[in-house]
Amino acid sequence: MSEVKMPEPTWQRTLQLHWERRPVVLPARDTLVSPRALFTIACELGARCPQDGPPSDFVVHFASGQRRAVVAQALFPRLQDQTFSGYAARIERELSTRSFLLYVRGFAEHAPALRERALSRLQSLRQAGLHWRHLEVELYIGRYDWTAIGVHRERCGNLHEVILGRKQLLFWPPRVLAARGDRPECAQHGESRQRAVDAGLLDRASVCCRARSGETIYFPSGHWHVGASPRLSAAVDLALYGIGSSRPGRPLKDSTR
């Protein structure tokens, strides 16, 4: 299937209509970063990670299936892997599992070209009247049938661009699901796909968004959501915090903590 190319005003108009209302898949456009360039960024982040522990200047989580692993340099892509597929094959050999997810947040200062590209894209949205206070850039690489944290929510809107492969996200409006008492950011019975099926959560999913390489899934702050990528994928997420707190025309502070 060929990529869908839409004029910039159409992309912006679609986002304006859904902003803080409901999720939507935005059509393909010029990507934030190529798969090859993103692979190189991931390798460079791995090189900054200690051999036996997590880095100190950005946040990393790694899950194999539903099990969290102690983050170390070996869990990142390496240049010797050559591609994301080579990386996935190595992880499968070393961990004896096909299911994994590498999540990185707060790394944009180590990827200046990606950061500038993201800010340029957001500037055009801001000029269209969409507002937020700051952003964080996040990276998702993996092959999994349910996000390790389960069904969860965040205080940010998201532009989730698929760089490689295909992804699916399920969404529920804020008041549809009950929060866990010990972790209010997580939904009750949302820890795994089977738990969600048994509890009837999937029957109550308001939206299922599927996106392929080049497409972007937008979803509002506070929406319950969970991701799935049965085949290998890589995505960059622009998490927008403080939505609606700035007046039109007021300068906004963009940071990548």
Give a topology summary:
Blueprint: H1 8-18, E1 24-26, H2 35-48, E2 59-64, E3 67-69, H3 84-95, E4 100-105, H4 112-127, E5 134-144, E6 156-164, E7 166-172, H5 193-198, E8 207-212, E9 216-219, E10 224-241
Antiparallel strand pairs: 1-9, 2-3, 2-4, 4-5, 5-10, 6-9, 6-10, 7-8, 7-10
The CATH superfamily is identified as Jelly Rolls
Shape: globular
CATH class wording: Mainly Beta
Derived from helix and strand composition plus strand pairing, the structural class reads alpha+beta
Number of E-state strands = 10
Percent range of helical residues = 10-25%
User: Unreliable segments (pLDDT under 50, ≥5 consecutive)?
Assistant: 1-7, 245-257
The CATH architecture classification is Sandwich
Order of helices and strands: HEHEEHEHEEEHEEE
- Determine the N-to-C terminus distance: 37 Å
Number of H/I helices: 5
Write up this protein.
The chain is an alpha+beta fold. It is built from 5 helices and 10 strands; from the N terminus they run αβαββαβαβββαβββ. Strands 1, 2, 3, 4, 5, 6, 7, 8, 9 and 10 form a 10-stranded antiparallel beta sheet that branches. A hairpin with a 2-residue loop joins strand 2 and strand 3. The longest helix is centred in the middle third of the chain and has 16 residues, at 112-127. It is globular and about 45 Å long.
